[in-house]
Amino acid sequence: MSDSGGLSEGIVRELPRLRVDFDAALAEVRGPEDLQEVRSRFVGRKSGELTLLFGRLGRLEGEARREVGRELNAFKQEVESRLEARRVDLEARTRDERLLRERVDVTLPGRMPPVGRRHPLTVVRQELEDIFLSMGYEVYDSFPEIDDDFHCFEALNMPPDHPARDMQDTFYLEGRGKLLRTHTSTGQIRYMLSNPHPPNVRIICPGKVYRRDDDITHSPMFQQVEGLVVGPGITLADLKGTIEAFLHALFGTQYPIRFRSSFFPYTEPSVEADLGCVVCGGKGCRVCKGTGWLEILGSGMVHPAVFEAVNLKLGEVVYDPEEVTGFAFGLGIERVAMMRHGVDDIRLFYGNDLRFLEQFNK
Q1: pTM of structure
Q2: Crossing angle for the helix pair 62-102 and 32-43, nearest 10 degrees?
Q3: Which of 59, 184, 286, 348 could crosslink 205 through cysteines, CB 3.0-4.6 Å?
């Protein structure tokens, strides 16, 4: 009995120490993981400190066993009750924190979704088209990007040995006898061939073209707008007046325009148009290389050989060089955009860098 009494007293003396330890451990709980550690430490099935005390009950006898058992059960119920209360409290706090994070203040102004913008090259192309539409031109862009030698070169007075072909630096499609068009002048030929009656033409041909160029001012793919006017009595004065009206509508009347003699195999005479530098206002700067002028487009009167090539293809004389004349001009859309926005690297337009593209508001 003395051993049983001593054992009983030993178990009872453990309870105050165990209670203090439990209180301290529970106070340090900050999350579900901490709570599980406390549960395992005190009431774990195999090695919980309170569980081990219950294991020593089997060595007690009679009334001592019942009394100590009552005290252990009471403490165990208290421990489990406080563990459950702490669990409920943690869940409530977690829920409240989540609700706080997810709270929506309906009084705040709405967040505007990202709004897409037209590409700056698209804006320029549409402006060019609108100007010429207002001048009575037709937009003709239904001609193929993959073309043949006749439409791209021969019909434009560039036979196989013509040195002007070297200027184009063409992409040929191996084994197909085709090429990627190097200019939208092919649209001129295709339009005249498909619209032989009557021989009065006033069109622009916008579209993509391809050349073996790749640097800050040239791209393997870029966009051009070609213009063609054909009819009786068309003169060089009509060409100059058209270009001046177009460039003033595009850039403003404050910039002067000059014409210089040049050479293109499909026009004679040929002229290039320069615009007063939009950066320095004609004073001279790095962009215009100190000249005060920027080259903007090439043009000229349609060479009689072009009309003859079309007539030969049609099998009849529709565009008689003795009866009709015409003028043609062409400019790069990227060049216009670079001049307008002060961009010095054409590759920026095709790099898909949103930091660059989002600077344009339209």
Answers
A1: 0.69
A2: 180
A3: 184
